[in-house]
Design goal:
Layout: H1 2-13, H2 18-27, E1 34-37, H3 41-50, E2 59-62, H4 63-66, H5 73-82, E3 91-94, H6 97-105, E4 109-112, H7 116-126
Parallel strand pairs: 1-2, 3-4
């Protein structure tokens, strides 16, 4: 029973919006793209297998693997170090305001995700203004 519940939970994490996947992939032409997710370690492995498009990203960080979860500042620091970039170089997007505020507190730009069109408008405004400060 426990294993069945675990697999059901993994399956629920593995459902993605294909329009968003296409949008994220399109961003790779103009920016580096990373994923920071609070998925547990065993879910992360299954999620990677179910979503091979994640290999196209510049960095993928799962809380179960990096041993720290959003909104802990260390999770955002992990991404900055892994991407060899300053926090100000990031536009952190999350559907939880608490996580966006935490990213902003580390110096990242932030956007609370509600829909693809709103995100696209923010990205289109943000990208031309950024001046990467590689570490």
């Amino acid at each position: 029973m426990i294993e069945e519940l675990r697999l059901t939970d993994i399956d629920s994490w593995s459902r993605v919006d294909e329009r968003m996947v296409a949008y994220v992939r399109s961003l790779r032409a103009v920016a580096e793209v990373a994923l920071l997710s609070n998925i547990p370690s065993d879910h992360a492995d299954a999620f990677l297998v179910a979503n091979p498009w994640l290999c196209d990203l510049d960095h993928v960080a799962f809380s179960g693997k990096i041993k720290v979860a959003k909104p802990d500042p260390a999770a955002f620091h992990h991404c900055a170090v892994a991407m060899r970039a300053a926090p100000a170089d990031f536009l952190f997007v999350d559907d939880r305001e608490e996580n966006v505020r935490a990213a902003q507190a580390t110096g990242m730009n932030g956007h609370v995700f509600t829909d693809r069109d709103g995100l696209a408008a923010v990205v289109d405004t943000w990208l031309p203004t950024r001046r990467p400060t590689r570490k």
